[in-house]
Design a protein that fits this description.
It contains 27 helices and 2 strands. It is mainly alpha-helical. Strands 1-2 form a two-stranded antiparallel sheet. InterPro entries: TF_fung (IPR050815), XnlR_reg_dom (IPR007219), Zn2-C6_fun-type_DNA-bd_sf (IPR036864), Zn2Cys6_DnaBD (IPR001138).
């Protein structure tokens, strides 16, 4: 008899006979008829329908309790995901903009209905899950269950990926119009002076036009990230990390000027916020993108074109204002590339093979949309800049402050002769402003890193040592030359006939960067390693004095700038780096000069960093465990001061500033920083002593040039001081003060 055929029961009757009573299952239809919703003939062993369709006729004696219907669990998952998404959106939205969230979620009439829907979903889930758990196990096929679990996990993973993609495509909400206008105004007031690349008048004109607002969305959201902390009540729109990710994702989708500007704003904001680890990849992308968009080359028709014309992602234009805006976008990316190289000790990405650009014009000329012609800025050819090659052969294009014959600069010993050569310079610098001088000063600092500190030199080879010291003097003369070539209107004003009510941020940054370049160049000569056998033949006292003067002047300039700038105006990250280098060299001077006291300028620099941190934070609500770049520098300087004061064996290596700061967003305990006295310095000394066949002092270094010790070298005026008066003054045009 086939499986599942109902059995008949036999019972005895009162008269002693027997009666066959059919089982209760006889009244049930077979499974095939039930599924087909047909009237079953209940024939044995096969009913009429099963005989016609050749199906197995099975009669179930026990009905299975109904469980969850197919797709019910998936439906619950979808509803729960939708509920969770709505709750997250409600938490991320500002309480003052409830109407915006309600318009997005138009299916929810009010909060009460939303909560009711949530309770209904949870109640349904609680009701159905016990049925699923109590379902008969014998009716579950193991292979089918495993397949369902795998498909369920796959669907959940696919849903997560879809959610992430949908989130990146979903534009963050904009503030209401009045608050958004306040944020844009705050951007041009506080952020724009440090990255001047957006023409304010034209931007506001496009911002007021609804047709152009779509192209400006990515810039607007970048401005919100950078400037909302300076507007009361606007920090909620920049707090969410998803807003930053949306700007990055959108800016990477295509090549456009707006996307480059947005990424530059994000990089500037991340650096100041102490998230430099997130910034390096963005800067690397920017340096390549400005090449793809042809922003590294001047748009001019010349006879030196290539046979293969590169694809132009940006349309050509004859508008001088737009050309200047593109030029300034490139130079801001250029500054980020140089800052990354100097602070981290990495190679530069934008080289002389890529860059052929004019300097940006004066800010007030650009603001008034006046067409002017500025000089080209020469980038040195790094492939020809090895130690041993004179500086005169490393520049592909002449810089505006470069001599007609650099060999004469190298051979001149008298400062009077140097001044006489300066008078022969014919380059017209009247059309450039403070931003251009900041670019020049930053490139000078980068040259110290690329052409001196990063050069590999065998310090046991006398000829290489001589070439290395010659390069030192060449760069030193270059820096002195740059200071002496400043325009007459920014030169020394000993009688202080002109009061300086407002100090230009870019010009002040240029002067502070110049003094920092002097420190980076001279500090290795001032405090050479102990294993250098020729260290006694170096002009260490002269270099130490130059470093000390540069550090104290940076402290004085910064104190004056903070006192004469608006109380809420932030400071750029490069300025903070300069203060860190200045404070470290003052600490080294105190550590290695017996009988000296720690100068008060050291604590002035720390106080300035703390004030810069306060200005940067403004109205933002930052967790205590996160430090901005200014606080990181201040905390580390205090740790170094305590080590120098309490640990006599502590040796401070002046060249380890690149590894002295953790660039992630979280704070780091003091014991995780390297201790040079226990790790770096003894290892270096031991290694050098093992490799030298004779004691260092027994080597003959008499061939080292003595030209560095002459009176003209030691008497050069290298440092820019605040007593130079109007050298720091902003333009008389109030609108151009920050350009």
């Amino acid at each position: 008899m086939p499986s599942g055929t109902p059995e008949k029961k036999k019972i005895e009757t009162n008269d002693g006979g027997a009666k066959i009573i059919p089982d209760a299952a006889d009244g049930l239809a077979c499974n095939g008829c039930r599924k087909a919703k047909l009237r079953c003939s209940r024939d044995r062993p096969y009913c009429l329908h099963c005989r016609k369709t050749a199906l197995e006729c099975v009669y179930e004696t026990k009905r299975v309790k109904p469980g969850l219907k197919a797709g019910a669990v998936d439906n619950l998952h979808r509803r729960l995901d939708d509920l969770e998404r709505r709750i997250n959106e409600g938490e991320s939205s500002s309480p003052n903009h409830e109407h915006t969230r309600c318009q997005r979620n138009h299916t929810v009439a009010n909060d009460g209905i939303g909560e009711s829907s949530a309770r209904d979903v949870l109640a349904l889930l609680a009701k159905e899950l016990p049925k699923l758990v109590n379902a008969p196990k014998e009716n579950i096929n193991p292979s089918t269950a495993f397949s369902e679990r795998r498909s369920k996990r796959k669907r959940l993973d696919e849903g997560l990926d879809t959610f992430n993609t949908a989130f990146l495509n979903e534009e963050p909400p904009l503030p209401e119009k009045q608050l958004l206008e306040a944020i844009v105004t705050s951007y041009f007031l506080h952020v724009h002076p440090w990255i001047p690349m957006i023409h304010q008048a034209r931007f506001l004109q496009r911002f007021s036009n609804e047709m152009d607002q779509k192209q400006l969305l990515v810039i607007l959201h970048a401005m919100i990230l950078a400037a909302s902390k300076f507007v009361p009540g606007a920090w909620a729109f920049a707090r969410d990390e998803r807003a930053r990710k949306w700007v990055l994702y959108t800016s990477m989708e295509s090549l456009s000027l707006e996307n480059l500007q947005a990424l530059t704003i994000v990089a500037f904001n991340d650096l100041g916020s102490g998230n430099a680890a997130k910034t390096w990849s963005v800067i690397g992308s920017l340096t390549r993108t400005v090449e793809y968009t042809q922003l590294a080359q001047e748009q001019e028709d010349s006879g030196h074109g290539s046979f293969c014309h590169p694809y132009e992602s940006l349309p050509r234009t004859d508008d001088c204002t737009q050309l200047e805006e593109r030029r300034r976008v490139f130079w801001n990316v250029f500054l980020l590339d140089r800052f990354c190289s100097v602070t981290m000790g990495w190679n530069t990405s934008l080289t002389s093979d890529d860059v052929y650009r004019r300097l940006p014009c004066d800010g007030h000329l650009w603001r008034k949309e006046k067409p002017v012609l500025t000089p080209y800025f020469g980038i040195w050819d790094k492939s020809r800049g090895r130690i041993g090659n004179p500086i005169e052969y490393v520049s592909r294009y002449p810089s505006p402050t470069q001599f007609g014959n650099d060999a004469e600069l190298h051979t001149q010993a008298r400062i009077t002769a140097l001044e006489g050569a300066i008078s022969n310079v014919s380059t017209d610098m009247s059309t450039v402003g403070a931003f251009a001088y900041n670019i020049e000063a930053t490139e000078s600092m980068s040259r110290v890193m690329s052409y001196f500190l990063q050069q590999k030199t065998n310090m046991r080879d006398q000829s290489e040592i001589s070439c290395w010291l010659t390069r030192f003097k060449e760069l030193d003369l270059r820096l002195v030359h740059w200071k002496m070539l400043l325009p007459q209107k920014w030169k020394a004003n000993p009688n202080l006939t002109r009061h300086v009510p407002l100090m230009d941020p870019n010009l002040t940054m240029a002067h502070v960067t110049h003094n920092t370049s002097m420190i980076l160049l001279h500090q290795l000569i001032a405090y050479p390693p102990l294993h250098w056998g020729f260290r006694n033949r170096l002009p260490s006292s002269c270099s130490a004095e130059a470093c000390y003067s540069a550090g104290t002047e940076i402290a004085a300039i910064t104190e004056k700038y903070l006192g004469r700038s608006p109380a809420g105006s932030p400071i750029g990250s490069q300025y903070a780096f300069c203060l860190f280098i200045a404070a470290r060299i003052l600490l080294a001077n105190w550590k290695y000069t017996p009988g000296n006291e720690l100068p008060s300028e050291f604590w002035s620099l720390i106080h300035s960093l703390e004030e810069m941190s306060r200005r940067w934070t403004a109205f933002a609500e930052i967790p205590l465990e996160k430090h901005d770049i200014f606080t990181k520098y201040a905390v580390r300087l205090k740790q170094l001061q305590r080590l120098c004061a309490t640990d006599q064996a502590f040796q401070m290596n002046v060249m380890d500033y690149t590894i002295d700061i953790r660039h992630d967003s979280l704070t780091t305990p003091a014991d995780t920083y390297p201790r040079w006295s226990q790790v770096l310095q003894p290892a270096a000394l031991q290694e050098m002593n093992l490799t030298l066949p004779n004691p260092p002092d027994s080597a003959d270094f008499s061939t080292i040039p003595q030209i560095m010790l002459d009176q003209d070298f030691t008497g050069m005026d290298r440092i820019i001081t605040f007593d130079d008066g109007s050298m720091f003054a902003a333009s008389f045009d109030p609108g151009a003060a920050a350009w």
